[in-house]
Design a protein that fits this description.
Chains A, B: It is found in: Membrane. The structure is a homodimer. Chain A is mainly alpha-helical. Chain A has 16 helices and no strands. In chain A, 78% of the residues lie in helices and 0% in strands. The termini of chain A are far apart.
Chain lengths: 428, 428
Amino acid sequence: MNIAAPSIENAGPFTRACGWHKLLPNKIVKMAKKIKKLGQDDPRRIIHSLKVGLALTLVSTFYYIQPLYDRIGENSIRVVITVILVFEFSVGATLGKGLNRMLATLSASALGVGVHHLATLFGEKGEPIVLGFFVAMIAATVTFVRFFPTMKARYDYGLLIFILTFSLVSVSGYRVDEVLHMAHQRVTTIIMGSFIAFVTCICIRPVWIGEELQNLIANNIEKLGNFLQGFGSEFFKISEDRQPLSDMAFIQGYKSLLTSKNNEETMANLARWEIWHYRFGLFHPWKQYVIIGILTRQCAYKIEALDNYLKSEIQTLNEFGRKIQEPSTKICSESGEALRELASAVRKMKQPTSVNAHIENSKTAIENLKFMLDTYDLEDANLQKIIPSAEVTLTLIDVVPCIVKIADAVQELASLAHFKTPATSVSP
Amino acid sequence: MNIAAPSIENAGPFTRACGWHKLLPNKIVKMAKKIKKLGQDDPRRIIHSLKVGLALTLVSTFYYIQPLYDRIGENSIRVVITVILVFEFSVGATLGKGLNRMLATLSASALGVGVHHLATLFGEKGEPIVLGFFVAMIAATVTFVRFFPTMKARYDYGLLIFILTFSLVSVSGYRVDEVLHMAHQRVTTIIMGSFIAFVTCICIRPVWIGEELQNLIANNIEKLGNFLQGFGSEFFKISEDRQPLSDMAFIQGYKSLLTSKNNEETMANLARWEIWHYRFGLFHPWKQYVIIGILTRQCAYKIEALDNYLKSEIQTLNEFGRKIQEPSTKICSESGEALRELASAVRKMKQPTSVNAHIENSKTAIENLKFMLDTYDLEDANLQKIIPSAEVTLTLIDVVPCIVKIADAVQELASLAHFKTPATSVSP
């Protein structure tokens, strides 16, 4: 198709190899750049990879060093498997998987041993039939349980391991004499592997998913604030002196949160496992973060409507536009400020102080706007010219109640999670 | 706190047990209802659970029946494990996991055997050091590769199994003499297990994730159409004769698609594995469904703005409202019809026929509206009373280009996937 390709295709093998030689460095450079970017975007990824390598080397010494091997024997390979399967990027995910695996193995082993003993009562011929029946029944039941949304969210891995271990113990119990011993070994090695994964994950530069969620929610609220403040200055000023919007990407940061619902829910589910975190502890209200996330998203949908006006061709402000300019900019800046303050409150776990003042200011601006809209003299006005500005105004009026809802939810979070009250507001 | 609780707490053990007895049936009934609902919502869940039970019973016969056991031996337990781990709800997920597991085991076993042979060259003392170095290095590298979004989407499970198998083969190779034999057995049992899972999954009432995705996308488009048609009749008519919106839930069905992005992407990734599906085949353009999904969502964000007007207190239509009523209802019904037709085209894989006509009708209605807005006499009008209706109108005008984009994307899908042309439009 292109000119370069046939010249390689038609050439001898040597020239062809040379041709590939010329293409190869390009590809390698591209790949290297991609890898570099992935590492630079989040250096914790590199640390995590090294941690996995370290944990595996640690655990495989069980196998290499004779005295250790003599103690645990061949089963130490199951410790290796557990470390690989349990080790995740965040502490929450690692703890969740590890605890799931441990509890599931423990309970399924017990059940497996029980069923095995029950089956032996039915004689040599009856045993495989009873075992087969129980394996099928329990596998089908637990598989069905995995469909429950609440179970799927937190215990999916555990339920899978439950089926696995139960089948393993009860099926292989048919051939192995010491079922109890086998089950016991399984449980011990899995506990050992999980603990090695936990220790490596928590002790070396841990990634707490709870902190991640807190930051995500705070950033999302802040992004809404950035948009409103950016919108206020861009829409009502640029229309007079139209310039390209330089920090459009910054203003439009909120777009990422339109579809982050699943992500936030998953993070909240994982964060619950991080019961050892020094800041959050056992009863941190992770659900409230999800609720704030939902409210933030509802606000973002409304903002999405405003964003269209930034992109569309805006005519210079007419008389009507100039009239609404001042209160509208006020709403943008005040509610943006309120959102930034809320974001900072969530991030620093401190009670917000001046949010209510900002919201009250926005409400006053809304009253001014409403009065103005009610009394505006429409004689000689063209509806199509007025409407874009009027629509922006009405949407802004609509956004403020959303922000009030977010503020209430943050306030509830603050009281549930006992956020610190700032030092200045302490009464004498 | 309440009255019933203390009476149980203070009573003797027998009465207490009776109290629980009374509470228990309630809980059981509730639970039973939940289970029933889960099964009724999607009866395929029950079938899937039974399929898993069946596959496990099938595969565990390897263990019970002596001649079969003699052939495969203890390793047959790995067949059981593979079936449990690979068997998923949809064919795509099962194939994806199975192929990932097979390929990863194959390549990692080969690499593990190679590294084992290399390590033996370094003598008895050097061997564990070389092995440890390779395990750490390869585990760290592959763990890092798992962070690449493209790899994570399709090969995450395979990469995990790669680390697992490589560590297993190279580490346990230190103690086992016949590394090659061990690796070979591993590969064979995993291939056997995967195939048993494939056959059970595909042959008994299979759930094709590709069909699910197609239906999801078609339903989403249809939900937009339902909203627009419902909105047209509700907003402009109910305002005259205000009644409760009976089918509000039906109209607001579109809300589910606001956050379904991740879901659609996951489904498209899984659908690619279903290369044996009779209707889609190997090169079905799954990416295009994701694109249509994105465009549908953009349209839904705009519709979300309209939805607010259904909820807010609507005053009876004023003179302005009556003037825009006819062209606005026209836009709603025509674009709703276009969307329904597009949905049906995606669902039935047939070229859409009358979509363009409907879109043209909407465009004509838009021109009428624009002309009306331009020439409307605003004398004696109150801006705040006019604006809600005017805003609805402008949003509707904004929605039509979105629908055109969806129509173009569906058209592209139709040509990429060779949708059938309807029999009626065949030229003589």
